[in-house]
């Protein structure tokens, strides 16, 4: 097979993106649709999901579906996957993007906050992957992309729950890659660094914290959400067919130090 841009096309593919109504989730959903995929975006808010799907369909000409689902609840995830398959007949790409961060020192971390981060960032990807397994195995094709973080490999103070969940997600990615390789399903983790999204607004608006981040990013600036597009299209397409169990870091050079 000759290397060409055709490797990156997603025509005929169906992608499911959790937390796909804003931030990186929406940027990725839009990009996948522009590359040719039909997309399903999810949110706990049905109206937001439907609004995002409508906008993507209108701008790309692809089919798009918005579904409401709390990805920490197994029953809702099963219903989400069933509705996706009913609408589009298959699921080729799963992006486990829904995530949350709570910043507190360990001794101040209450159990409810800890559980919320773990359930959203680690349990939800496990539940979603489990739910699409039957469909992807029957197709003998799948791309599962888990949105981890550079903080899955390095640490920062007051991110005990977040770092733990994202590190665990990298390990879950490796296990799934080994288990599902015989079915032509690849499982990889995308690990963004500091990206200027709503999740990081609290850091960017704090002059001292923002300076700390800028000083540690080799490129000297926060990343733009659209700078993740190349990586996600690669990981979702035929171009990455021999990559599985891997973690791709897009962090402006932070972890190169």
From TrEMBL:
Source species, domain of life: Bacteria
Coiled coil: none
Domain Ketoreductase as annotated: residue spans: 13-193
SMART domains: PKS_KR
Cross-referenced SUPFAM superfamilies: NAD(P)-binding Rossmann-fold domains
Pfam families: adh_short_C2
NCBIfam families according to UniProt: PRK07231.1
Protein family (similarity comment): Belongs to the short-chain dehydrogenases/reductases (SDR) family.
Descriptive protein name: NAD(P)-dependent dehydrogenase (Short-subunit alcohol dehydrogenase family)
Organism, as annotated: Paenibacillus aceris
């Amino acid at each position: 097979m000759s290397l060409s841009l055709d490797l990156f096309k997603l025509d005929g593919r169906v992608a499911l993106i959790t937390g796909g109504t804003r931030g990186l989730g929406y940027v990725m959903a839009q990009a996948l649709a522009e590359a040719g995929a039909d997309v399903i975006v999810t949110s706990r808010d049905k109206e937001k999901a439907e609004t995002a799907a409508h906008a993507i369909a209108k701008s790309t000409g692809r089919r798009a579906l918005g579904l409401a689902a709390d990805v920490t609840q197994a029953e809702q995830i099963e219903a989400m996957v069933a509705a996706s398959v009913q609408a589009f007949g298959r699921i080729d790409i799963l992006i486990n993007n829904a995530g949350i961060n709570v910043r507190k020192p360990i001794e101040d971390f209450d159990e409810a906050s800890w559980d919320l981060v773990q359930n959203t960032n680690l349990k939800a990807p496990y539940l979603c992957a489990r739910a699409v397994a039957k469909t992807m195995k029957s197709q003998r094709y799948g791309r599962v992309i888990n949105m981890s973080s550079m903080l899955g490999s390095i640490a920062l103070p007051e991110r005990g729950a977040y770092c733990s969940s994202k590190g665990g997600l990298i390990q879950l990615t490796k296990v799934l890659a080994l288990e599902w390789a015989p079915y032509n399903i690849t499982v990889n983790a995308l690990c963004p660094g500091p990206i200027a999204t709503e999740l990081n607004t609290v850091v960017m608006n704090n002059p001292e914290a923002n300076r700390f981040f800028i000083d540690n990013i080799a490129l000297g600036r926060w990343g733009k959400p659209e700078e993740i597009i190349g990586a996600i299209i690669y990981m979702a397409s035929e171009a990455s067919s021999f990559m599985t169990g891997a973690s791709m870091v897009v962090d402006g050079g932070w972890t190169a130090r």
